[in-house]
Amino acid sequence: MLDSYRQPMPPEAINALPLTRYEGPVHVFPDAGDLNAAIDDLITEPVIGFDTERRPTFRKGQNFPLSLLQLATANAVYLFQLCRMTLPGVLESLMSDPATVKTGVAVHDDVRELREVILFDAAGFVDLGQVARVHNLPTCGLRNLAANFLGIRISKKERCSNWGRESLTPQQIAYAATDAWASREIHLRMQAAKLL
């Protein structure tokens, strides 16, 4: 089974896969209002898809703070607009909990940037790209891993959009939710393939 994941997938093969996005419930939090249901779901989930977004920079020396934190469970995806809110302490604790797996691609950078916004001792993070490298898999980015492990194509069109907007567009919400959801699904497939 592992050998099938070691075969490189050319771009034309990825482009031929069905374009897929997360179709489940997405909850966007522009502030720290009623987070109780989200927190209850997140603290009981053993594997959480994890990603972040920031407003892109187009000038040298320009830098914007982290704008969005995306967390995916088996039940829903939660989008926290960090540019407009402060995360409650329980979510900071979740980022420090080694028993809760937070999984994504290039998580080292995401964690470093998230620690500029909230204080936590990072624990329980799994970088799917690093797992792929350890097993000599030919692809390490989220789009390629989704193609290889899930047999789907995910869009990266909104990647450089303005994540600091007051109201996210439907396209941004779908993109952000899909990235977190896909990370969790890839993690589960890697577990089933005994790569984790």
From TrEMBL:
Domain 3'-5' exonuclease: 26-195
One record GO biological process: nucleobase-containing compound metabolic process
Matching Gene3D superfamilies: Ribonuclease H-like superfamily/Ribonuclease H
GO molecular function: 3'-5' exonuclease activity; nucleic acid binding
GO cellular-component term (any): cytoplasm
Listed InterPro entries: 3'-5'_exonuclease_dom (IPR002562), 3-5_Exonuclease_domain (IPR051132), RNaseH-like_sf (IPR012337), RNaseH_sf (IPR036397)
Keywords assigned by UniProt, alphabetized: Exonuclease, Hydrolase, Nuclease
CDD domains: WRN_exo
Keyword Nuclease belongs to the record: yes
SMART domains: 35EXOc (SM00474)
Record bears the keyword Hydrolase: yes
Name listed for the protein in its UniProt record: Putative 3'-5' exonuclease family protein
Species the sequence originates in: Megalodesulfovibrio gigas (strain ATCC 19364 / DSM 1382 / NCIMB 9332 / VKM B-1759) (Desulfovibrio gigas)
Lineage start: Bacteria, Pseudomonadati, Thermodesulfobacteriota, Desulfovibrionia, Desulfovibrionales
